[in-house]
Amino acid sequence: MKRSELVSRILITVAVIGAVGAPLFFWSQSSLMHARVAESGGWNPNIIRADVGAPLHLRLTSDDVVHGFAVGQMNMDGVDVLPGKVTDLTLTFDKPGTYTFYCTRWCGLNHWRMRGTIEVGGSNTDAEPAPAPLYVSLGLDIDAPHEAPAIPSQMPSAFRGESLIRGLAISQFINSDFYRVHSPYETFENLDQYPLGESQRWDVVAYIWQSNTTLESLANGKKLYAQNCAACHGENGAGNGVFADDLLPSPNSGGGGDEVRSMIQTPANFTDPKRILGASPALLQGKILRGGMGTGMPMWGSIFTEGQIWDLIAFIYSFQFEYQN
Amino acid sequence: MIRFISLVVLFAAGLAVAFAPLPAPSIAPQARTLRIDARQFAYSPSELKVNLGDTVTVQLVSTDVVHGLYVDGYDVSVEADPGQTATLTFVADRSGSFRFRCNVTCGAMHPFMIGKITVEKNDLLFRSVGLATLAVIGVFPLSSLLVERKDRALAK
Asked: How many CB pairs under 8 A join A and B?
């Protein structure tokens, strides 16, 4: 074999291996993130590392159905992650810490289990600890029953309430310090010092609740509710969303008999006055932050900002009160 | 001869009933709201029937993953997440049968997630009733004609 022949043979071999190997190498090096429904593994990878201030480039694709991607606590709108397409996304983190990213399009009963973390490290690791949520500092037991002992005979109306409060000094009720720690029923009890009938007092409660929120908050809460809550709690709040029945094990699947079924909590019915009028905003905040232990209720503390949770709570009360539009 | 003429008249009437264009829609257009449940990989109901000119509002309720609905021929579509009922309103101004299909990739069998919407005036029913009536009327002259011919043949 001539020397030149040997060289050309080596060159051809290298070129062939390179043509196949180089794309494979770059494919394995690229940060393409695959999304699958939670039952098939969720996000891959589900732990990402990033540095403070340095842009993090993500390339996302889906292996099965439509998913979405967003990072919690950042108030960002999700981007769609579609099968067969690649979504490019660049994120920059200002603060070090552990962020939760999650799926934003309902992709099944276990959609909310599709989560992962981004660990953001940086030089200034002196991150201040998050303040304790209100229910912790108040010492509330958010799993205790909180039924209102009495409920209004008709839906309380903020409009009627507004006409009743003229001449009454109720300004102490219209501030967030009072509103957040009192349930509507406790407020109703507090109002017995005024010369009002029972249904009138409920109307004033409705007015107080309306005065402690804004139209923008209610609209934002409504949007968040539709995107994140309605699939289980129902679009009209009655706890009968499309997944409500699926949360129970089916009787013939071996998932347990009637005994097990009766122990599993179904999604809360927000149209039930006993349940909602007996709950203070701080209590609802605790339930949303932590989620339902042992139920299908996800933990939202790592996803919603505090403002988003208050907006959501204001919207949940609107199932009980008639507000002016 | 009279029998022959009556036969021709009957035949012409039959053709008219079957094929004459109707002057106006026999049914006044109305607004219809139809709820369709979408799941992997089927619609329920998967066959819809509306009249020509109806304003159709489809409420698409998804019960598992994100689904869509695209109506062939009308080129209108809608997309629904579970928990977020989506509505699609269109005027059914083209008659015929149209396929509707999921236009959001919803899993392995996604291409087979289809349904059918039939848009028509319900004149087929009235035309068939008319033809049946003519047939009943026609039985009498036709049979008597045949009987007469048979009689003539026997007389020869």
From this structure: 56
